[in-house]
């Protein structure tokens, strides 16, 4: 008997979380994505509630990939198979292109992460990869304090990450990650001056335990507000 394909099963928890958060009323004129990577999936939900989006990353290669996609350059990655489950995805792609105003270099380990660029204080930040960028727990705490300066008072940080990750694989290459315990996100955000509004934890799905791309034990997704 042929198994019926379920497209929802292919949607990762992080995509579901981003979709729910940005449709729940989290909105503002300017949104900054910290550590965009070469990906665009996070913008499909964000463009519904943000007029302007700034994409950022530390590596030049990721920035180049984003620029290639934005400008429809030869060799740009085709995201159609990934986003085709989104309603009116072709129109959404163009909407995302219009929303992304700039692609900038970012280093979360610097006190001014976007230096030398100075942006208006944003209504929201997305950061989905701090444990990959920060070598120590203190560096992660410092990064959260630095990111806070990019937000306006009352602005929101949408943060996700993984628990107890020591490595992840990309294209056959192994990269180190900072293993975080379940207490760390809450404690570090409170120390950095954030108020946690929503926090979800998800255990690693049983079917992924044979996946050797990473050794994480679970995921967290949260929304925090800059407290002043």
Automatic annotation (TrEMBL):
<dbReference type="GO" id="GO:0008112">
    <property type="term" value="F:nicotinamide N-methyltransferase activity"/>
</dbReference>
<keyword id="KW-0949">S-adenosyl-L-methionine</keyword>
<dbReference type="GO" id="GO:0005829">
    <property type="term" value="C:cytosol"/>
</dbReference>
<dbReference type="InterPro" id="IPR000940">
    <property type="entry name" value="NNMT_TEMT_trans"/>
</dbReference>
<comment type="similarity">
    <text>Belongs to the class I-like SAM-binding methyltransferase superfamily. NNMT/PNMT/TEMT family.</text>
</comment>
<protein>
    <recommendedName>
        <fullName>Nicotinamide N-methyltransferase</fullName>
    </recommendedName>
</protein>
<dbReference type="GO" id="GO:0032259">
    <property type="term" value="P:methylation"/>
</dbReference>
<dbReference type="InterPro" id="IPR029063">
    <property type="entry name" value="SAM-dependent_MTases_sf"/>
</dbReference>
<keyword id="KW-0489">Methyltransferase</keyword>
<dbReference type="Pfam" id="PF01234">
    <property type="entry name" value="NNMT_PNMT_TEMT"/>
</dbReference>
<keyword id="KW-0808">Transferase</keyword>
């Amino acid at each position: 008997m042929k198994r019926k394909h379920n497209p929802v099963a292919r949607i990762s928890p992080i995509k579901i979380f981003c979709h729910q958060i940005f449709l729940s009323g989290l909105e503002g004129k300017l949104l900054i994505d910290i550590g965009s990577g070469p990906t665009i999936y996070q913008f499909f939900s964000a463009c519904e509630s943000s007029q302007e989006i700034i994409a950022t990353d530390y590596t030049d290669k990721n920035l180049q990939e984003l620029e290639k996609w934005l400008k429809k350059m030869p060799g740009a990655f085709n995201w159609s198979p990934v986003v085709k489950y989104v309603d009116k995805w072709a129109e959404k792609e163009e909407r995302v292109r219009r929303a992304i105003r700039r692609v900038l270099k970012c280093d979360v380990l610097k006190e001014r992460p976007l230096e030398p660029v100075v942006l208006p204080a944003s209504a929201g930040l997305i950061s989905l990869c701090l444990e990959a960028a920060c070598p120590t727990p203190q560096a992660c705490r410092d990064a959260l304090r630095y990111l806070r300066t990019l937000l306006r008072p009352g602005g929101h940080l949408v943060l996700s990450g993984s628990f107890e990750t020591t490595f992840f694989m990309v294209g056959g290459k192994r990269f180190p990650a900072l293993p975080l315990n379940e207490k760390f996100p809450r404690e570090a955000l409170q120390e950095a001056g954030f108020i946690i509004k929503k926090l979800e934890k998800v255990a690693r799905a049983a079917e992924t335990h044979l996946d050797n791309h990473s050794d994480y034990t679970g995921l967290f997704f949260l929304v925090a507000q800059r407290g002043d």
